[in-house]
Every structure is written in C-alpha cells, then in structure tokens.
C-alpha cells in the first residue's frame, strides 16, 4: 500500500512489477493507492497490507505509541520538504518569503518542521501571512493566486501545480538549510517480519533492484505507472516528478551504497528532530534503532 494516490515517486514499484523483478523473487505484487502515511501505517500494523510505503517519521509516531511496525528500508534519505512557488514569482531564497502568503495544511509533517526552517533561516512568523486548508485547498490557493507559496514535497505538489497551470515551480528545499531528515521508506508489521524473514528479504531484494532499474530508465518507469493506471497522471510530469525523487535516495554518506541502506547517524538525527519539532514522544531518543533495520536488504555497494 502506497502512502498516497499515485504520483512520480511511486514509479519503481510499477516498473519492478512490469519488468518481472518481483515475479523473479516469487512475489505476486498488488499495488494499492493510499490515503496518507498514517492510514497506510495503520493498515500495516493491522496486517491488512503486507508492506507499506510511508513517511518514516509518521511511522515512528505510531511505533512509539505501541504500533507493531518497523522500517525494513529507508528510501528517501534526504528530505523532500520545501516551500515552493511558481517560478515566475521569483521567490528563490528564504529572505524572499517576507511579505508573502504561505499556504499550509495544519498538523501535516511539513507544518511541524516549518518552525525549524524558520529558526534555521532567521525568518519569523510575523514576516509573512499564512492561509490554512487541506491538501487540495493548499494547491488551489497557489494555482489561483490566493497564496504565493505552499509547503510541499519537491516531487509531488510541484508537479500537480505544473499539471494545472503549465508553469514551472521553484522549491526552496528544507534540506539545503541544514534540516537532515529521512522521509519515505518501506514498513512492515514487526511480527510479520519475524514470521516471514525470507519473504521480507525477497521483497526488499526485488524493491532494491526495481529502484536501481527505474533510476536508469526514468521515463520508462513513469510510463509503467500509466500502463497500470491510465488515469495516474501525465507522462511528462510523472517523469519529472520521479527524476526529482532520485537525488533524495542518498546522502553524501550513502552515495556508494545500494538504495535503502540508511545510516544510523541519519536515523538518530531524524528521531532527534522529530522529538524536538515533530511531536514524537521523547522516549523515542532512548533507542532510535527500534524503528528500523537494514538486516533484510541485499548486501553490497551499487
């Protein structure tokens, strides 16, 4: 089960299925769209989905409250969070946000980390206006000119705005201002992992190979989304969205590694940030390793 309705980031799963990579590992993969990382995490905890592709910090919040879930691979090791605007507005750096209107969705992952971005960049809440609404309202505010920027993921909301307006979008990326936090990964029920170790290894092997194959053929990978789901978007923005995702797979520390092999330091920093800014219970800092494992990943460098 994916984190959301299909968009470019999801291309490797569809490409891996289309290319027979999962079948080679003995896996008959069914891909379901999701309705948010929290809902997908609940489905995995309840064993109604075998694996989920979710925002790992969202999974941590469920796990620390007792949900039996663990990340078996962290794919996005650099945060996709950004403040984005139509490129023709010429908002290129944090200073340019002053006097502007920012659209947010209350309580989502980006809005929780936004105060840290303000702190890192010397901005104050009084420097700009905010308008709040759900995900679609936030998009509409920028598309219709009621807001100058929105908080969004570089490969997701930016492509939706481009689909609607035909215009390019410019993101001010949180990661460029020292906010080092993981994002999407594969999660599974911890009991399911223990009981099905061989299957989990095969699934992570297939998914690693699917990501590596998709990286080499971004347009073909994006096309596999449309082949499976003809209403899944437009080929140009699906391709561009996926191409914007690829740089998020690795940090300077993991650039020689195969996908999903997150470092302990990256996870520890992510837990610490989530405790300070993201509403994660402070007890999570006692054992960051409780939230993830690299034990089921294929060995070797890329």
Automatic annotation (TrEMBL):
SsuA/THI5-like domain ranges (all copies): 9-221
Q: Pfam families of this UniProt entry?
A: NMT1
What is the top-level taxon of the source organism?
Bacteria
Q: From the Swiss-Prot or TrEMBL record, give the protein name.
A: ABC transporter substrate-binding protein
Q: Which organism was this protein described from?
A: Bradyrhizobium septentrionale
């Amino acid at each position: 089960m994916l984190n959301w309705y299909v968009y470019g980031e999801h291309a490797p799963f569809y490409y891996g299925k289309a290319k027979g990579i999962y079948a080679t590992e003995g896996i008959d993969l069914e891909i379901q769209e999701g309705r948010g990382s929290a809902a997908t995490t609940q489905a995995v905890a309840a064993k109604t989905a075998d694996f989920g592709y979710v925002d790992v910090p969202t999974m941590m919040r469920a796990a620390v409250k007792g949900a039996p879930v663990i990340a078996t691979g962290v794919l996005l090791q650099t945060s996709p969070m950004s403040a984005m605007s139509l490129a023709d507005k010429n908002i290129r750096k944090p200073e340019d946000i002053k006097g502007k209107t920012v659209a947010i969705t209350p309580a989502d992952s980006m809005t929780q980390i936004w105060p840290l971005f303000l702190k890192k960049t010397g901005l104050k809440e009084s420097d700009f206006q905010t308008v709040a609404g759900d995900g679609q309202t936030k998009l509409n505010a920028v598309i219709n000119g009621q807001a100058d920027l929105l908080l969004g993921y570089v490969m997701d909301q930016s492509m939706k705005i481009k689909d609607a307006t035909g215009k390019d979008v410019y993101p001010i990326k949180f990661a460029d201002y020292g906010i080092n936090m993981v994002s999407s990964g594969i999660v599974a029920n911890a009991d399911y992992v223990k009981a099905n170790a061989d299957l989990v290894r095969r699934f992570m092997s297939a998914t690693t190979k699917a990501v590596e194959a998709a990286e080499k053929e971004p347009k073909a990978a994006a096309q596999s989304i449309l082949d499976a789901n003809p209403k899944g978007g437009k080929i140009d923005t699906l391709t561009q969205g996926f191409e914007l995702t690829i740089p998020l797979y690795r940090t300077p520390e993991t650039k020689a590694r195969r996908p999903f092999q997150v470092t302990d330091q990256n996870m520890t920093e992510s837990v610490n940030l989530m405790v300070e800014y993201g509403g994660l219970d402070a007890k999570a800092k006692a054992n960051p390793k409780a939230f993830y494992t690299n034990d089921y990943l294929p060995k070797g460098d890329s």
